[in-house]
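Quick check before the chapter quiz. The format below is the same one you will see on the exam, so make sure you can read both the input and the output lines.
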Amino acid sequence: MTSLMAMDDTDRTILRILKEDARVSLAQISREVGLSSPSIKDRVEKMEAEGVILGYRPVLDYGKLGLGLTGFVGVMLDPLRCCDEDIVRDLRAVEGVVEGWFTDGDEDMLLMVRAADPASLMETVNMIRSIQGVYRTRTVITLANPIVRA
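Here is the expected output.
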């Protein structure tokens, strides 16, 4: 079971600021929160050590990278191979698969896929289907992403 880190309002404010802009300076956070930069640094380092902050990543505009089509692929796995690390390794190797989750329900996994167009999405889905242990897939293409949170 995951243990929860005790956080106060100041920690939550620091997280909110970092979620808005992970490149913000400690001095800027210090001014907004009303604590010294070393205190802010200590709090951020504690949240990193506790696993609350897992990393800092760029937010990409996939359309400008030529990957403007997003699809979600529900994957049904062979019951004898469900959750097999070999399948996960093979899915990680498929170009275009950017995230994946184990799920409960009709599908065993849900994959987020980025592609240039419907034809390249179909190629990616066919590569997923070719992986040993993948029984069936179901793909949903997104139209817009009106809700985005860090």
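If your answer matched, good. The longest strand covers residues 69-77.
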